[in-house]
Design a protein that fits this description.
The structure holds 4 protein chains of 4 kinds. By secondary structure, chain A is an alpha+beta fold. Chain A is about 30% helix and about 20% strand. In chain A, helix 12 links the parallel strand 16 and strand 17. Chain A starts with a helix and ends with a strand. Helix content of chain D is about 40%, strand content about 25%. Chain D contains 23 helices and 20 strands. Classes of the chains: A alpha+beta, B mainly alpha, C mainly alpha, D alpha/beta.
Chain lengths: ~525, ~350, ~300, ~550
């Protein structure tokens, strides 16, 4: 390595810290035998890769409604979740870019008593936006806000297994669970469970005072939310941005146009149809992450003909998942295999065999069930997921080749979840996914769960579920979850079509590290984690 | 007592208007009551437990019977209290008035801005088209305006946005490369002559006035394209209709110039139908712009009402509906007053 | 009458015997070029709509493997995101969109005209009641109201038709009442009343034939408005529902492509626009020939 | 006209010379000739009367004399030399400068020809100001002067009224003032008094004649009324089918018309039916009072008897309540008080209470066959309906009866598939008569059935009605404002004024020796075919001081 090359290397490492000007860098590059353009390119790339302080980012969110509020009992969509949970607040834990659990406001956590007791130790010296110290009392009040008979929190069900929370001194919180749950810290990372100051023993959410990287400056429900940097944020150096504005742009075309004209720097849920064309724009970067979310077609196993496992199996073979992934999601989805556990989740194991479109097999199982032909209704609406109706159209075409006549019934979008889901024998459904296998299975496949959408009650599965939850031996857990995924694949009434990918697009002016898969918008934490690479 | 005809109409219409508002409130209330789901279910979403839903229903009073809710609402209304949004929580009151006020301002802003462009434009074009009827000008104006109203509104909006985006992207498209160079350059130049209006009209209460105008440019242009045709055609038709009147022959026989014939003799008699159509279109500007609001992300009352309907936020829906109905009633009243004021037969009865 | 002879034209042979058909033929012959163009386009659309299954190269919902296929011999206008032939979708879109708009307009006219004429004929409380009811309906923003009603009754095609017909009939009512009022005062209506005719006969035989032309003209316009309303409702997600092809949704689905200069969304939008323009041309001609207005210069 | 002025005018030079004028009109997508080669000339201060029936092209010629063709018309050939310059070949801008300033126009229906949106004064002075002849102030003062000369009431303030606020006669005079504003050389009067009541007509005629004489203005006076033109014109030109029939000085034309057609025109006013005594009464109206909604009383205490098989003429000016009486008899407007008996039976006052047969026995014919016939029904449908409705006739029976009725009204059966729009005015009125006859009625109310028709046609219709009465024994209530019509058809006359019966009696008695002052005024106001009639009447009235009282 020549001296000039060495200097150039050193200079590269200094760019991120803002120690080298662009001009000096280009000179060094020339000295090292590069062209002006090439060294400039390297400067930009390197600069982007290194977090920088300052800047104002405008982030276009795919949601936003006039009924939005900063109340963590709600947070129905990505607007409130990203702006108020991710940017403004912290929970006890967070999920990192690799799907692992990390302490956030907590400094550490540990379990005892067969994962029935969980002790969280709080980080020292953390203050709310108003300067008040965060204490265990605040944590208890914040959690209680989602518990109890009269809570209005949508997250109530997550804490139903918690029998007691108490503060043990100012910096320790102890959770006692009804039954062991090795994944409890994951639950604590849910975006609802933000820590709010306790006022008179009650969580004060209305003031907007939180612990997060940003302080709320202006919020117009359904329009925008503007936040500015919290100078006293407890994470060193973060956030990088001085200001962020979240803008609600629910119309897809408008969102795409706003990014194209540079009126926003980032948009969530980019248009898949025109992604190819968007990619050609050199100023735009597209990020795609396979999330936990998945699209399902639950069959009610208590109702004929779905009470017959062979019929269920026939249906599973009569659907072309790849085509749905390609056409409904335009390739921006990962084909699933009738198990709800996403590849990014711990203990994921793909069951055998891979269910795909195979008319032979479908007919085989149909015959096994004693049928030549079958006629079933599939209830769909785009309220279940965007493209559900089109998916129905595709399923009808493929199923017809297997002797199954699928009558696609369009249901009203309003109150779809009230009137269709869990009511109609076969319908479309969506799960945003859970961070752990246990959590997912408990909510959607456990016999006693009120959202057991296929009404599937497999004794072995339910036995395993309880055992695995309290098991602390990783290898044993892995085996148990592996078996459960196979059972779901083989016997349950849920047809899991695909896992969704979060596709977002942004200006290359924005820089970021690895993107977390647990939620959209970098696990909702983009405001805290991203930076402005060039002004 | 013999009232002035204008005063009489105003009083009569205001009375009827109040009844209309009352009936509208009943209809809207019943409609929301009939909608599947309610606010609690809509906001808590898919994963809420029934107990949670019940608790929320109780807090916002949804567990009371609809008739009782309606009467308590109208009782407050009578006192001028629009009530609170269902999005309010204990200690965090969001009154309907404070939710609607900025939205209404925005809607009015856009409506007035558009009207200031569209109404003079439509009247001017209509008058000139009537004056030079069957000329190429007349035909071109007619066909162009007709075409603009023939496209769905959102399509017009997208097309305008596309023009703005094309400033930067046109040169790189395959289409541009397939054109002769001079043509591609001149198209590109033309595109760049148009100011780069923002495709995102996301204003808020801190937006300065001229920035507001700037951001509302595209929505306003879209609406102008949508409403000009109707008003222009009516102006033209109303004037042409008058042109077959004997007194127009008389004006010509008195040696009046064609412009004087149209402006002084035809137009004053054509106000009534023109004003009615203008009022109709102004009402549309306030009431019917939800699509444009969505496309340009403009925070107006239309989108607010659609949002509120989706989330079953009854007090907000009710207030929006009343604002809209009142607008309709008032604009029609104004149109009637102008019709009377411009018609000596009604203004000065024998 | 120009004859001065005291002897009446008892013997004078009338001109060619005129039947309704010959009258229509004469009227058509006088139609200007724009009206001919309009009628031609409407006829084409009607044929396409009626014979969609015969004309379309594929089935309405037939899916091919290639999504977003380019224009080719196989797929004249390429395929959509699901790999359905665009041309086929356009043709079936004509059938669905025009068919629904047509039925809706017919319904709204049936209701609007009947009630409007009754109001014009009887005046009094019936007129007041209907007019005020129409005022109320018109003062509710129709798009949002349609949205609510469709949410209540579901976005089935039947409820779509009924809801739009109801909201649209208010304007028809107003027009029918207004033109009806002009005819009701005519002496031939009085003659019928004096003769002792019932209201149904008077409505059908005396009034309706005389307001038919303005009504037909309005029919054309309302048809277009219904069309655009359906498109707008599709935009808000409650219009004609997939997998049925309809132009409004096709524009909506492909709208983002406009941003990249792709002409796909132009096809259905153009189809809507062309029909609207065509109908308006015909309507202009109708209005022109009925108003007796002469555009001289 | 006064002899002295006639002499003075004859000294004038040629002001207007029209040569070989051809005008075409556009209808049924074709150009039809309206005026086919008319020549005439006019000296300064001279008044030319154009007379003819509708369709003769007289109004078109009047407008063409201003170089103007109505929308839908075009001047195809000829020249119009005004003061030596051809109006037809000059530029539109130059023509525009002449119009209003040197040639002016006074229209038939001032109510329609005045712009309803502007005050009278503004419209009067508009020309003078626009042509730069006078300043606004001068023009205003001059307008008041003209109003005075035209004997308009309150000349200082009447200009601030809108057209709808003044009466028809006043409007007509205001329009003359408007025409006079620039002191034009030529005024075209297009039937200026036709729409007026006779008593009003006299005054307007007098006013017009005075200003025309005072300013020595030349005039073309277009009318269909011989008696009127006789008062106004120095010369008369008779037109037919767009061609000149003959032209001569007024006196010569009246006394010795050269052409057969002119003689027919002259003769129509002489029809008179001898009156016949009646045996009994088919209709008796006793003390009827009626009012429209709003409580304005239109009839008070009216009693009339209608003899069976005879004709009662109901005479009166507009607003006298005669048409209201027809509505009361038909039951459309039920009387508030009083009683009506029909064929010795009490007649229910309201239409709704009358039986179908009773409805059949009283039929009505309207003034305007255009609005009384449904434009969308063929002649056959119109006549057949009463046959089917009242008599239940079907098929061949019905067709035979239709044939009979067509024969009765002297029309060919080939008209049966025509629409009203394809018929002439007289033919339409015949169809209305056939429709009434189809019901086999006993009483027909004829509401001004001839006043919308040309005089020759009027005569035909009247003759037809008389013949039908003779053959069918039907009784008529004949509502009219025209004394000549009364003379032609009536047996008895009822004179109405302001909702009251002024006089009732046998025709001869009323027409020759009226008792009531109003009847006398009415009768004396009917123009006679005598050029000196107006002069004489004015002189006589001046003596009696009745002129102002009548206004």
């Amino acid at each position: 390595m020549s001296e000039s090359e060495y200097k150039f290397r050193v200079a590269q490492s200094l760019i991120g810290r803002g120690k080298v000007s662009r001009r000096d860098f280009i000179h060094l590059g020339l000295a090292a035998g590069l062209t002006v353009a090439a060294s400039d390119q390297i400067f930009v790339t390197v600069a982007r890769a290194q977090p920088q302080q300052g800047g104002f980012a405008k982030l276009g969110m795919a949601h936003g409604a006039t009924t939005d509020s900063i109340d963590p009992a709600g947070y129905p969509d990505t607007f409130t979740q990203t702006a108020f949970s991710g940017a403004m607040s912290n929970g006890l834990t967070e999920v990192d870019a690799k799907g692992g659990i990390q302490p956030d406001l907590a400094e550490s956590f540990e379990s005892s008593n067969g994962a029935k007791t969980w002790v969280f130790k709080l980080r020292k010296g953390v203050t709310f936006h108003n300067g008040k110290k965060v204490t265990a009392e605040d944590v208890v009040s914040s959690m209680r806000y989602h518990m109890g008979v009269d809570t209005k929190s949508a997250a109530k069900s997550l804490l139903e297994s918690v029998s007691d929370i108490k503060a043990d001194g100012p910096e320790t919180v102890v959770f006692t669970l009804n039954s062991g749950n090795a994944d409890f810290p994951y639950i604590m990372s849910d975006y609802h469970f933000v820590i709010m100051p306790s006022v008179d023993g009650k969580a004060d959410w209305a003031s907007g005072t939180r612990t997060g990287a940003f302080v709320l400056e202006n919020f117009q429900p359904g329009v925008s939310a503007k936040l500015k940097r919290n100078p006293n944020y407890f994470k060193n150096g973060k956030p990088y941005l001085d200001e962020v504005e979240f803008i609600a742009i629910t119309d897809l075309a408008a969102r795409m146009a706003a990014l194209s004209t540079g009126e926003v720097d980032y948009i969530g849920r980019a248009d898949l149809k025109t992604l190819g064309m968007l990619k050609r724009n050199p100023k735009i970067e597209i990020i795609e992450v396979t999330g936990y979310g998945h699209y399902t077609l639950p069959m009610n196993v208590t109702i004929a003909p779905f009470d017959n496992p062979d019929v269920r199996m026939a249906m599973k073979w009569a659907i072309d998942r790849q085509e749905i992934a390609d056409k409904i999601f335009l390739g921006h989805a990962t084909v699933a295999n009738d198990s709800p556990i996403a590849p990014a989740i711990k203990f994921y194991k793909n069951p055998e065999p891979q269910h795909r479109f195979d008319p032979e097999k479908a007919r085989h199982y149909l015959k096994k069930a004693g049928m030549e032909k079958l006629k079933v209704d599939l209830s769909v609406a785009d309220a279940a997921f965007a493209g559900a109706v089109d998916a129905g159209a595709l399923i009808r075409e493929t199923a017809a080749q297997c002797g199954i006549d699928v009558n696609v019934v369009r249901e009203a979008e309003d109150a779809y979840w009230d009137n269709v889901w869990l009511k109609k024998p076969w319908c479309a459904s969506y799960w945003s996914g859970r961070a752990t296998a246990d959590w997912m299975f408990t909510q959607a496949f456990a016999a006693e769960s009120s959202w057991n959408e296929s009404f599937w009650k497999n004794p072995r599965f339910n036995e395993l579920l309880v055992q695995a939850r309290a098991e602390t031996d990783e290898a044993k857990r892995a085996a148990m979850y592996g078996e459960m995924q196979q059972l779901a694949h083989d016997d349950s009434g849920s047809i899991v079509l695909v896992f969704n990918n979060f596709v977002s697009a942004q200006s290359k002016k924005l820089g970021h590290g690895d993107v977390a898969p647990n939620w959209e918008n970098d696990g909702l934490k983009m405001a805290e984690r991203w930076w402005m690479a060039e002004a | 007592m013999r009232l002035n005809p204008v005063a009489k109409t105003v009083l009569q219409r205001l009375g009827l208007g109040l009844i209309t508002l009352f009936v509208v409130s009943i209809i809207i209330f019943s409609a929301i009551a009939m909608l599947p789901g309610d606010f609690a279910k809509a906001t808590l979403g898919q994963s809420a437990t029934p107990e949670t839903v019940a608790a929320l229903q109780h807090e916002i009073g949804l567990d009371r019977p609809p008739v009782e809710r309606y009467f308590s609402w109208i009782g407050k209304m009578a006192k001028g209290d629009f009530g609170s949004s269902f999005a309010s929580r204990t200690g965090y009151r969001r009154t309907v008035a404070e939710i609607i006020a900025p939205r209404l301002y925005n809607t009015m802003f856009l409506a007035v801005m558009t009207a200031l462009i569209a109404v003079p434009l439509a009247l001017g074009l209509g008058i000139v088209a009537a004056l030079y009827r069957n000329s190429w000008f007349d035909r071109v104006v007619n066909t162009v305006t007709l075409t603009t109203i023939s496209f769905p509104e959102f399509f017009v909006a997208y097309m305008l946005a596309f023009l703005i985006i094309s400033r930067d992207t046109f040169a790189g498209t395959e289409f541009a490369q397939s054109l002769p160079v001079w043509l591609a350059i001149s198209i590109n130049w033309t595109l760049n002559v148009v100011p780069k209006f923002p495709t995102l009209a996301n204003i808020n209460d801190q937006t300065p006035f001229w920035d507001h105008v700037w951001r509302a440019a595209l929505p306003s242009a879209t609406l102008t394209l949508v409403i000009v045709a109707h008003m222009m055609r009516m102006t033209r038709a109303a004037i042409l209709n008058m042109l077959s009147s004997p007194y127009i022959d008389m004006a010509r026989l008195k040696g009046m110039r064609p412009m004087v014939v149209v402006l002084r003799h035809a137009l004053p008699n054509a106000w009534a139908p023109i004003v009615t159509v203008v009022a109709f279109n102004l009402a549309y500007l306030i009431v019917g712009v939800v699509v444009v609001e969505v496309v340009f992300v403009y925070p107006g009352v239309g989108q607010l009402m659609v949002d509120a309907v989706r989330s079953r936020d009854v007090p907000v829906v009710q207030a929006c509906a009343l604002v809209f109905a009142a607008t309709y009633v008032l604009l029609n009243l104004i149109a009637d007053i102008i019709s009377i004021a411009t018609n000596p037969r009604l203004l000065h009865p024998r | 009458m120009t004859s001065a002879e005291p002897v009446i034209q008892t013997t004078r042979a009338p001109r060619v015997r005129r039947t309704r058909r010959s009258r229509i033929r004469i009227a058509l012959k006088k139609a200007p070029l724009s009206a001919w163009f309009g009628m031609g386009v409407i006829l084409c659309y009607a044929v396409v709509a009626l014979f969609a299954p015969l004309i379309a190269p594929y089935r309405e919902t037939q899916v091919f493997s290639e999504a977003f296929a380019p224009w080719s011999h196989e797929f004249a206008f390429g395929t959509d995101q699901l790999g359905r032939d665009m041309l086929t979708r356009l043709i079936y879109g004509a059938r669905n969109t025009i068919g629904i708009a047509f039925i809706t307009t017919i319904l709204s006219f049936a209701a609007g005209v009947t009630l409007g004429l009754l109001a014009a004929m009887y005046r009094g409380w019936l007129d007041q009641l209907l007019s005020r009811a129409v005022d109320v309906l018109m003062s509710i923003p129709s798009l949002i109201f349609a949205l609510m009603l469709l949410s209540i009754f579901g976005s089935s095609i039947t409820s779509l038709i009924l809801v739009i017909a109801l909201l649209d009939s208010t304007r028809v009512f107003r027009l029918a009442r207004a033109v009806g009022l002009n005819v009701v005062v005519m002496e031939y209506v009085e003659v019928a009343q004096l003769r002792g005719e019932g209201p149904a006969w008077i409505l059908r035989k005396e009034i309706l034939p005389n307001i038919l032309l303005p009504l037909i003209a309005e029919f054309g316009l309302r048809f277009c408005f219904v069309f655009l309303t359906i498109a707008a409702l599709s935009f808000l997600g409650v219009g004609i529902q997939p997998p049925s092809a309809d132009w409004g949704s096709m524009v909506r689905e492909n709208a983002t492509l406009i941003t990249y200069g792709d002409v796909t969304p132009l096809l259905p939008a153009g189809a809507i626009a062309l029909l609207t323009v065509a109908v308006n041309f015909v309507v202009d001609w109708f209005l022109h020939s009925t108003s007796g207005l002469r555009d001289e210069n | 006209m006064k002899t002295s002025s006639v002499i003075a005018r004859e000294r004038g030079t040629d002001l207007l010379t029209v040569r070989d004028l051809h005008v075409e009109g556009f209808s049924d997508e074709r150009w039809h000739p309206i005026v086919r080669g008319v020549d005439f000339s006019l000296k300064r201060g001279e008044v030319l009367g154009l007379i003819g029936e509708s369709g003769a092209g007289k109004s078109t010629i009047g407008l063409a004399a201003m170089g103007y063709a109505k929308p839908g018309c075009r001047i195809t050939r000829g020249s119009v030399l005004f003061d030596g310059v051809d109006l037809l070949s000059m530029s539109e801008a130059r023509r525009r400068r002449l119009r209003g300033s040197r040639i002016a126009y006074v229209a038939q229906s001032a109510a329609a020809w005045f712009n309803p949106a502007h005050r009278l004064l503004d419209q009067t002075v508009e020309t003078a100001v626009a042509h730069g002849i006078a300043s606004r102030g001068e023009a205003n003062r001059d307008a008041v002067e003209l109003y005075k000369r035209l004997q308009l009431p309150q000349p200082e303030t009447i200009g601030f009224r809108y057209p709808h606020q003044v009466s028809g006669g006043q409007l007509q005079r205001a329009m003359t003032a408007m025409a006079m504003a620039c002191r034009p050389d030529l005024i075209v009067f297009d039937e200026p008094t036709t729409a007026l009541d006779v008593t009003t007509q006299v005054e307007v005629l007098a006013s017009i004649r005075r200003v025309v004489e005072d300013f020595n203005t030349a005039a073309i006076y277009v009318t269909h009324d011989l008696a009127v033109v006789a008062q106004m014109a120095d010369r008369i030109m008779v037109l037919r089918h767009g061609q000149t029939v003959e032209e001569a000085g007024t006196r010569q034309m009246l006394t010795a018309p050269a052409q057969e057609y002119t003689r027919t025109l002259w003769a129509v006013r002489k029809l008179a039916k001898p009156e016949i005594e009646a045996r009994d009464h088919i209709l008796t109206i006793d003390n009827v009072t009626a009012a429209y909604a709003g409580g304005v009383k239109v009839l008070s205490d009216v009693s009339i008897r209608v003899p069976r098989g005879r004709t009662v003429a109901l005479v009166g000016e507009s607003g006298s309540g005669k048409s209201t009486l027809a509505r009361v008899v038909t039951g459309l407007l039920p009387a508030m008080s009083g009683s009506i008996s029909f064929d010795a039976q009490p007649l229910p006052l309201s239409l709704k209470q009358r039986s179908k047969d009773l409805l059949r026995r009283i039929q009505m014919i309207y003034q305007s066959p255009d609005s009384a016939l449904n434009p969308r029904q063929t002649v056959e449908e119109v006549i057949a309906r009463p046959l089917e409705f009242y008599l239940g006739l079907k098929g061949e029976q019905r067709d035979r009866r239709i044939g009979e009725l067509m024969h009765m009204i002297e029309m060919d059966e080939s008209f049966l598939d025509r629409l009203p729009g394809e018929l002439s005015g007289g033919q339409k009125q015949r169809i209305c008569i056939a429709r009434a006859l189809a019901a086999n009625p006993e009483l027909i109310i004829c509401d001004e059935v001839t006043s919308a028709l040309d005089q020759i046609v009027q005569e035909e219709i009247l003759k037809l009605l008389i013949r039908l009465q003779r053959e069918l024994g039907v009784s008529y209530i004949f509502i009219t404002h025209d004394i000549a019509t009364v003379r032609a058809i009536a047996d008895e006359v009822v004179v109405m004024h302001q909702g009251k019966v002024v006089e009732q009696g046998p025709k001869t008695e009323i027409l020759t020796s009226p008792h009531a002052a109003y009847t006398e005024l009415l009768l004396s106001s009917v123009p006679a075919m005598d050029p000196d009639w107006l002069t004489g009447l004015l002189a006589k009235r001046k003596r009696q001081g009745t002129l102002d009282a009548a206004g």
